[in-house]
Amino acid sequence: MKTPIVQVDSFTAEAFRGNPAGVCILPAPRDERWMKLVAAEMNVSETAFLSPVGDGFSLRWFTPAEVEIDLCGHATLASAHVLWEDGHLPATETARFHTRSGLLTAQRDGVDIELNFPATPDEQADPPPGLVDALGVTPRYVGRSRFDYLIEVGHEDDVRRLRPDFGRLRTLAARGVMVTARGTSNGADFVSRFFAPGSGIDEDPVTGSAHCCLGPFWGRRLNKQSFVAHQVSRRGGVLKVTLDGDRVRLAGRAVTVLRGEILA
């Protein structure tokens, strides 16, 4: 049986930028082992697997290290993009995804796709042993969200210059670590980078789900509800972030870069 698969670059208007995601739309669910093997074969930060259910689609995400993720922004954006582009949904219809983090939705907003996600605010926390040394920074603040550690540093340049010790970060009991600072260039309200070696991703190019924490954090810092956020990885990406009660709306663009068929 041949199974179509699409690779999409998310949170970018330009191919080979942003964060690549695999998107596999299935007529019915496949077994978990098969999905893990496909994700390992694709070898991008996450591969999304969708199948019809009720009023929308079941959606699961896996990393190349065969780890299932509870919440993923860029592969959800990519999934909505493929549903509309390939005619699985009318372009005017909201995409509804049933996930391990509850119901997520996506809708078109002009040239952007806007995701509606749960907020995952942080609480101030002591850094675990080795974290600060592994990053090589002097934190202004350390927090812990449902998934990750959040480290605020003093300047955008500190974020850009980071060269983490991934071996040490791999030992942390968390999905990943986000490092952030107030933006000082290109109209960004704040910048960030995201590291998740324990999940098989040394550095994630653009991490939508991290902004479910970064949005509320910078809302407190800047006393704002809407932001332009830049993730300043090598590939880079841009998100529009809007706080909406206990939800966060994340908007960005997507570009299809590859189409193929899985033969196994």
Task: Break the fold down into its secondary structure elements and pairings.
Blueprint: E1 3-10, E2 19-25, H1 32-42, E3 46-53, E4 56-62, E5 68-69, H2 74-85, E6 95-99, E7 102-109, E8 112-118, E9 123-124, H3 131-135, E10 141-144, E11 148-152, H4 156-160, H5 166-169, E12 176-182, E13 190-196, E14 201-204, H6 211-222, E15 226-231, E16 237-244, E17 247-252, E18 254-262
Question: In CATH's first tier, which class of the largest domain applies?
Answer: Alpha Beta
Order of helices and strands: EEHEEEHEEEEHEEHHEEEHEEEE
The CATH architecture of the largest domain comes to Roll
Please report which band the strand proportion falls in: under 5%, 5-15%, 15-25%, 25-35%, 35-45% or over 45%.
35-45%
What's the helix count? 6
Q: What structural class do helix, strand and pairing data support?
A: alpha+beta
Determine Rg (CA atoms, Å): 18 Å
Span between N and C termini? 7 Å
Give your account of this protein's structure.
By secondary structure, the protein is an alpha+beta fold. It folds into two domains: 3-116 and 250-262, Roll (Diaminopimelate Epimerase, Chain A, domain 1); 123-244, Diaminopimelate Epimerase, Chain A, domain 1 (Roll), CATH 3.10.310. It is built from six helices and 18 strands. It has helices at 32-42, 74-85, 131-135, 156-160, 166-169, 211-222; strands at residues 3-10, 19-25, 46-53, 56-62, 68-69, 95-99, 102-109, 112-118, 123-124, 141-144, 148-152, 176-182, 190-196, 201-204, 226-231, 237-244, 247-252, 254-262. The longest helix has 12 residues, at 74-85. The termini are close together.
